[in-house]
Design a protein that fits this description.
Number of strands: 3
Structural class: alpha+beta
Largest sheet: 3 strands, antiparallel
Number of helices: 3
Radius of gyration: 18 Å
Helix content: 40-55%
Distance between the termini: 66 Å
Shape: elongated
Strand content: 25-35%
Length: 125
């Protein structure tokens, strides 16, 4: 019986880690999408970072260490040049937090999400 209980707990833990990883991916997606909706490439960083962090907060994922990197790069397409916004979200999630145990345990899972969105060339000022 203890083996079965252990397997059930392991399955629950794996599901919680997978859910947290999906949230980190969603945060990167939200940040890149928000950044791509800005009117100029200069104003991308702040809104993109805030959107990514807000997504993490809304979904209840607390990171021991988190980092949001925003980069813009021009892309030459057949219709002309556009700017692509890439957001990378890194988050060290405490496994104790995911499993509902006491926090402060030194066991963490490093999760990374990245997404790229193209700025609308006709949205500029």
């Amino acid at each position: 019986m203890p083996g079965v209980v252990g397997l059930v707990l392991l399955a629950i833990a794996a599901g919680r880690v997978q859910t947290a990883a999906g949230t980190v991916e969603a945060a990167a997606r939200a940040g890149a999408r928000t950044g791509s909706l800005q009117r100029s490439a200069v104003a991308v960083d702040g809104p993109a970072k805030e959107s990514a962090l807000a997504t993490l907060r809304q979904q209840g994922v607390s990171c021991r260490n988190s980092d949001v990197q925003v980069s813009e790069a021009p892309m030459d397409l057949p219709g002309g040049r556009v700017v692509a916004v890439t957001v990378t979200v890194s988050c060290d999630v405490e496994l104790a937090d995911l499993l509902g145990g006491p926090s402060g345990l030194p066991v963490t899972k490093h999760l990374v999400g990245e997404f790229t969105s193209v700025m609308d060339r006709y949205r500029g000022t």
